[in-house]
Every structure is written in structure tokens, then in C-alpha cells.
Specification:
The chain is of the alpha+beta class. It has one domain. The chain is about 15% helix and about 25% strand. The chain has a four-stranded antiparallel beta sheet with strand order 1-2-3-4. The longest helix is centred in the last third of the chain and has 12 residues. It is globular. About 10% of the residues are buried.
Length: about 70
């Protein structure tokens, strides 16, 4: 992806698994082609951009237990 995504007015939400300890990610909704993801401890820092279908596959895999706990 080589296009610029403007995040100035993005509405960020934390993971529902956030425990208040600062080890969380936030995602921004409202971008049909990509899912911006950032570190909740660094809201002015960079965001990673995942193609929407890739992010959905990750969320589904996480919800169905495809990743083992470390």
C-alpha cells in the first residue's frame, strides 16, 4: 500500500482484552481497506496498517484459539 491514510480525526479503540497495564494496542475503525493499529502507550507514535482482510483473519484466529499462550 502506497497511499497516505489520514489519521488526524481517527476514532481509536482499545482491545477488549486491555487490562489497564499499558500493554495494549488500539485500532481505528472507519477505514474500509485498511486497519490502522498503534501502541496505546504512544498515541502520537506511528501506526501499522494492515489490509482489512488480513486484520480480520488475525482477529478470527485469535478468537478461535489458533495461537497458544506463551
Amino acid at each position: 500500500m502506497n497511499r497516505r491514510v489520514e489519521l488526524t480525526d481517527a476514532s481509536w479503540r482499545k482491545s477488549t482484552y486491555s487490562n489497564g497495564q499499558g500493554g495494549c494496542v488500539e485500532v481505528a475503525d472507519g477505514y474500509p481497506d485498511v486497519t490502522p493499529v498503534r501502541d496505546s502507550k504512544d498515541p502520537l507514535g506511528p501506526a501499522l496498517f494492515f489490509p482489512a482482510e488480513v486484520w480480520q483473519a488475525f482477529v478470527t484466529a485469535t478468537a478461535t484459539g489458533e495461537f497458544s499462550a506463551a
